[in-house]
Each structure stands twice: as structure tokens, then as C-alpha cells.
Write a structure and sequence with these properties.
The complex is a heterodimer of chains A (about 120) and B (about 110). Chain A is mainly beta and about 120 residues long. In chain A, about 0% of the residues lie in helices and about 50% in strands. In chain A, a hairpin with a 5-residue loop joins strand 7 and strand 8. Chain B is mainly β and about 110 residues long.
């Protein structure tokens, strides 16, 4: 158990809909990262938050947005869903080091399986 | 930019065979290097890491040595087991507050 909790574990929804994925980082971790894993694209970094503020942005679509709340949990919002958005979405967290890695490990949750039909 | 290249799979081995999964990287400065493992139906788990040149990371019989001269971090295990069947990801951090960069993953299947 990594200590990173993601809900829901599985989600099936229709095209055009909107879903919210939730992540609770490990206790004490200030950084939260979202990754998308699909068969054809591999593991893609979406976005990073550090202590409530956006820190880095990767290949995140404009239809997607995220935020990190004062209690440090994070939500990833996916809207106007398309079939191609079907994937495993991972949240990860890392310990505070000014938000940098400096060799710090990031810990992954078990992921949220999203199926768009 | 930073990148990680790892050998394409799938790799299929018999139990007790020797495993090598190649990983090379491109980065400026002195990155930290990681191997993560993803067992079927699970999330990614850190397998081992190395934070400076010539460091050797090891865990569960797996080893990888940070080779700056060849920009490599190959994963090795002397005798694989069926339970090692998983997808292995090589990853890099440039230690400058940017997220991990992952390779595409290598699927390993070990047969009895």
C-alpha cells in the first residue's frame, strides 16, 4: 500500500459526459501528480500541483482540469468525454522538498479505470 | 528535453533465467534514475532508484547501476520467477522540480 488513495477504482460513462477523479496523497506529501496510462500512449504526465498551486503542466487536454484543495487532496475533472479518453488515470504524490524531486520518490495510487462508451 | 528509452517488449523468459532490460536516458545535469514495476491490475510501485553516478539500486533481487558514461540504467536480475511477470518502467528526474519522465515500459512474462 503506497498510501495514495484514488477513487473511484472503476468508472464507466458515456461520451459527452463529465467525471471527477479524486486523489488523497500520502500523509505529509505536498506534491500531487496526475498521469494517464493508455495502451497506445504509454504513461503520460498530465499535471502537477504543489501545496495547492499548479506547478507543472504536461499533455493535459483543455477539456481536462485539476485542482488541489487546502487539505491537499486533488481532483481531476474530465469533461466532454470521448472514446479515446478511456484509460487508467494515476495519481501520485511526493514528499516536500520545495516541490522538487532531489531524488525523492513519488508514490502512485492504484489508479482509476475510466471507460467511455 | 529529457527522455528515457527502454527496450521494447514483450520479453518472455523461463523461470530462473537471467534478465536484462535496457534503459538509456538523455538529460542535462545530474538526474536521478528509477525503475518502477506495475503488476497486473495494480498501480506503479518503486522497485529501485539511484541518485548519482555509479550508485547501484537494488531490491527484491533486482539491480541497476547508474552509468553516466553510457547514460544507462539497465535493470538486471539473476534468476527470474513467475511472480516477476509485470511491466517495468524506467524513469528519470532532473531534480529541478519537474515531474518524472517515463520510458514506454517493458512487459516481462516469466513462464514456469
Amino acid at each position: 500500500d503506497s498510501g495514495v488513495t484514488q477513487t473511484p477504482k472503476h468508472l464507466i460513462t458515456a461520451t459527452g459526459q463529465r467525471v471527477t477523479l479524486r486523489c488523497s496523497p500520502r500523509s505529509g506529501d505536498l506534491s500531487v501528480y496526475w498521469y494517464q496510462q493508455s495502451l497506445d500512449q504509454g504513461l503520460q504526465f498530465l499535471i502537477q500541483y504543489y501545496n495547492g498551486e499548479e506547478r507543472a503542466k504536461g499533455n493535459i487536454l483543455e477539456r481536462f482540469s485539476a485542482q488541489q484543495f487546502p487539505d491537499l487532496h486533488s481532483e481531476l475533472n474530465l469533461s466532454s468525454l470521448e472514446l479515446g479518453d478511456s484509460a487508467l488515470y494515476f495519481c501520485a504524490s511526493s514528499a516536500p522538498s520545495g516541490g522538487s524531486y532531489s531524488g525523492n520518490t513519488i508514490y502512485f495510487g492504484e489508479g482509476s479505470w475510466l471507460t467511455v462508451v | 528535453g529529457n527522455s528515457v528509452t527502454q527496450m521494447e517488449g514483450p520479453v518472455t523468459l523461463s523461470e530462473e533465467a537471467f534478465l536484462t532490460i535496457n534503459c538509456t536516458y538523455t538529460a542535462t545535469g545530474y538526474p536521478s534514475l528509477f525503475w518502477y514495476v506495475q503488476y497486473p491490475g495494480e498501480g506503479l510501485q518503486l522497485l529501485l532508484k539511484a541518485t548519482k553516478a555509479d550508485d547501484k539500486g537494488s531490491n527484491k533481487g533486482f539491480e541497476a547501476t547508474y552509468r553516466k558514461e553510457t547514460t544507462s540504467f539497465h535493470l538486471e536480475k539473476g534468476s527470474v520467477q513467475v511472480s516477476d511477470s509485470a511491466v517495468y518502467f524506467c524513469a528519470l528526474s532532473d531534480n529541478r522540480n519537474t515531474p518524472l519522465v517515463f520510458g514506454k515500459g517493458t512487459r516481462l512474462s516469466v513462464i514456469a
